[in-house]
Amino acid sequence: MLPTLAAAVSISDSFVFSPVIRPDADILLEITGLHARVEDNAILKGVDLTLRAGEIHAVMGRNGSGKSTLSKVLAGHPAYTVTAGTVTYRGQNLLELSPEERARLGVFLGFQYPVEIPGVSNLEFLRVATNARRVQLGQEELDTFAFEDLVRERIKVVQMDPAFLDRSVNEGFSGGEKKRNEILQMALLEPLVAILDETDSGLDIDALRIVAAGVSQLATADTATLLITHYQRLLEAITPDFVHVMAAGRILRMGGRELALELEERGYDWVDQELAALELG
Amino acid sequence: MGISTVSAKGLAGWTSDLLARLPAPSGPLAAVQRRGREALAALQGPSRRQEAWRFTDLALLAGLDLNPSAALSRGAATDGLARQGTSQSGPGTLRLKLDGGSDPLAGVVLPAGVSPLSESELALALGHTLAATGCEQHWPVELNHASASQLLALRVASRSQVSLELVSDAASELQPLRVLLILEEKAQLQLCQRLTATGAGLTSLVLEAHLGRGARLEHALVALGQVDAALLAHLALEQEPESHVSLVAVSAGWGVSRLEPRIEQVDGSATTTLRGLQVVAGDQIADTHSHMAFGGPEGQLDQLHKAVADGRGRSVFNGAVRVSRAAQRTNAAQLSRSLLLSDRARIDTKPELEIVADDVRCAHGATVSCLQQDELFYLQSRGIAADQASALLKRAFCEEVLRELPAPARRWCPFESLLATHGSDRGPAIAVESGREGLEGEGG
Predict the structure, then answer these.
(1) For residue A214, is it within any domain?
(2) Which of A165, A202, B234, B438: disulfide with A175, CB 3.0–4.6 Å?
(3) What span, in angstroms and rounded, lies between the C-alpha atoms of B188 and B161?
């Protein structure tokens, strides 16, 4: 579970922080041959991906490659239909579960565009969500006071102004504040698998560092993290163990951190060429 | 479509039955009762052929077998009970129980700054604001005239600050409530009013208030009915310059309800804030016809009306704003926002602006939406169950109006009671923005 956050990792420490990879570690999430469509458009066309405990994976790709769809399908967004393939989460068929069951069991999606919900207090939203997870874990639900203590401790992970707790969920938050709020939710829900969709988008350098530090801090030997990103700059702050390049709805190539650097250097054109070759062949 | 099974003739028959069964005119309103009965006998009742009632079917009302004498003949015999219902509900707050039949002030010691109107004052003031706001001959008003034998008539003295609570609960009866308030120059009145129903009855409310220069009226009306009960309410307010009206009206649960806030800024230069929330489910009908008139320059209106419609419920909003030639530099904004929760629910919303002056700002807008899928999914993705997530969003929608209720009235309408009529859609135990408090018990 989450290490004591009182011993907060300093920002500079987090840049080199990476969990140990253990080939024998438990498989948390296993995606095989995943096909999915939205309305009549097939978007995912056979995705294979395995996340083990302690691993940080990055999925990179151009806009439209299917990265965000993958994250939404894993979280159970109703607009997407899985047409083939399986997703197993800790031995359980994830696709059979409702979005809320997935969340309670420890699958977390950090949204690219966190939704603003006017009229719903952020603090209460966080408390209800946290309690839903706690009930699943067999822990006691937290009352308002106990929860305030917890949230004030966890908020340090993202260095968010507590004033944002008293506002409506994400309403009027800047891009950076919204992303911090996402990571705060992650810190509270203590997921086993965290899927972070373009968490770096809309962040300035300072916010990116803070968010990345938060994510690094929350990635432990028991959890797996899937970073979905377009740019390599997030990966400068969070070192992935594996990098997957996605194109046209599938994982085209997988490698280590060097793959991200290669993408940064050469752009995505080679991906297109490789894809074209693949389709011709 | 739901063609009424009871025609206008049915309502006419119901009206003549009622007139025949009303006890003989008595009490301070005897003369009004006599005139009202004559008028009601001659008036054609509301029907859907009339523009003002086009969407609002009073079939439920025509089907009510009311015992008019139950409430109306309580009279002196139950004045003791009325006193029991009267209590100091908070520091400086007087709670009065209105039951339509007994003198609400019997045995009550009024706080400093408030006095009952004398007979001569009453003769001058009663009906003045109804006439000024053009509704003295409306059918629901005449119905009240014909049946109300008691009234609450108070004057709030200049520069005094008073807080009043009015509570009424109607059983299977006709409960005619009549209130007349005079706020002198710079007087301030917070009026929290609760109407509830426990039987297949009709609550008829006619409230008129005259605000002197610089006076402030904060009126919260919380009306929580039940499916076989009806509510007809006229709130007529007259504002002198520099006065301020804040009206927050929340209604839910009635089989049929019709609320008509009618406000006249006599010489402009006053401010009016209107907030409305109505909730329908099942086969309920809730109708708000607001009418705002600016008689002079530099008046202001800030109006937000919200509606939640589920089941086969029907919500009607008609927001009239009249800006006379003299009302230059009027600044009015009206917004109607509705949440449609079912394929079979229906929302009719219409601004009705009549502007004769040429230098005015009159903004108006209307939105009708369903629960937002992206908001629902966001909440679900955090482990919040779908039904809880939708209840949370409904609640957030309502909260924009509920949070403007003054504290005593806020306690009267916990969110759960608003959506209680939704059956399985009961609200979750989640507090949103402001604290949740249970329904307050009766004082006594």
Answers:
(1) yes
(2) A202
(3) 5
